[in-house]
Specification:
The protein is an all-alpha fold. The protein contains nine helices and no strands. The chain has one domain. The two termini are 18 Å apart.
Length: 170
């Protein structure tokens, strides 16, 4: 849904966001428990990955979405390694992950103690909209998410089978 949504023009992204916000909040049928392939270390990397999982992104989802809205292409397994605390975070991924979480990169960088060389440039509108769509869509039921996803795909107008990687405005 989010990947199709960020391929829309700005007006289409706003329309999709309005639709998501207008839908009634779906009560969860069970408590959310993100599935992890490795036991989290509990450190900053795990916290950041959990924040993305609470937005219904799997490691593969993180890899796909970040490949579309940022100039980075880490594999899905990389997010597992970050979540397990087996690798340190560096300024670039922290900045991209912060943008996708809708956070200030400097604030997120403070969590793992990463020092940013300077203020990162402002995010592209597609990145800001991806963060908003992720945040709002987390409360949808599966049926609502399928409906919105189908609508986003149909609104694209181009081939929904292919995705542009690293959108020009990223």
């Amino acid at each position: 849904m989010v990947i199709d949504g960020v391929h829309l023009p700005a007006a289409g992204r706003r329309e999709l966001l309005r639709l998501i916000r207008s839908l009634p909040k779906a009560e969860p049928s069970s408590p959310f428990a993100p599935r992890l392939l490795a036991q989290p270390a509990g450190g900053p990397g795990a916290w950041i990955i959990r924040m993305l999982q609470y937005r219904n992104l799997s490691w593969t989802g993180m890899a796909h979405l970040l490949a579309v809205v940022t100039p980075t292409y880490p594999s899905a397994a990389t997010y597992g390694v970050i979540g397990a605390g087996r690798t340190g975070l560096t300024p670039r991924p922290v900045t991209y992950l912060a943008r996708l979480l809708g956070m200030d990169p400097g604030e997120l960088a403070a969590l793992p103690g990463v020092v940013l060389a300077g203020a990162p440039p402002p995010p592209a509108p597609e990145v800001e909209d991806a963060a908003a769509l992720l945040w709002e869509a987390r409360r949808l039921s599966a049926a609502q998410a399928c409906h919105v996803s189908g609508l986003a795909r149909s609104m694209r107008g181009d081939s929904a089978d292919g995705y542009r990687v690293n959108l020009p405005a990223s």
